[in-house]
Amino acid sequence: MLIPISLKGRAAGNIFSWFNYLSVKFSETILVMSTNRDELINKFYSSFQKLDYNGMNSCYSDDIVFFDPVFGLLNGDEAKAMWEMLCKNAKDFSLTYGNIQHLDDEYSTCDWVATYTFSKTGKKVINKIKAYMRFADGKIAEHSDGFSLHKWSSQAFGFSGWLLGWNSFFQRKIKNGAKRNLMKFMEAKKGIGN
What we know:
Elements: H1 5-49, H2 53-57, E1 60-68, E2 72-75, H3 77-89, E3 94-102, E4 107-118, E5 123-136, E6 139-146, H4 149-157, H5 159-164, H6 168-192
Parallel strand pairs: 1-6
Antiparallel strand pairs: 1-2, 3-4, 4-5, 5-6
Helix pairs in contact: 3-6
């Protein structure tokens, strides 16, 4: 069947108008989602700068999944307790963050640098970290921090960390100690009713 040229033009124009409309709406939706994610990321790290673990944890979903090279995989209350413990025990702490990038409609990344005194040894640590976050229902649902455990242990433990920090046995010892400290912190918190 032949369609008159004038109808073809109108039909094509209507289809292009519809696709243009959808494209604009999709872009507006992505912009709003990116803005909400920017706000959450800024709230999370500006709260961290003030050692405000309540502000940080309010950005997380109740079933947050967290991972980093020191604590490993943490779920829900474990992840929130980790931030509380770190904030309460922080010494000579400062933090910068930036380079926020939105990878798609769920995932964002940013870079952050924490500077502090490692309490176990009294050594200064400057930890450069890449954060990967997945967002769902207006909250951070997954958070993974990537950094070199060898570089971290070289700063935190000095020569022994530099010499042994690449070794899986030494790294496992660091991870087990961090996890044990977190469990003790959570138990003590339960004991005092917080």
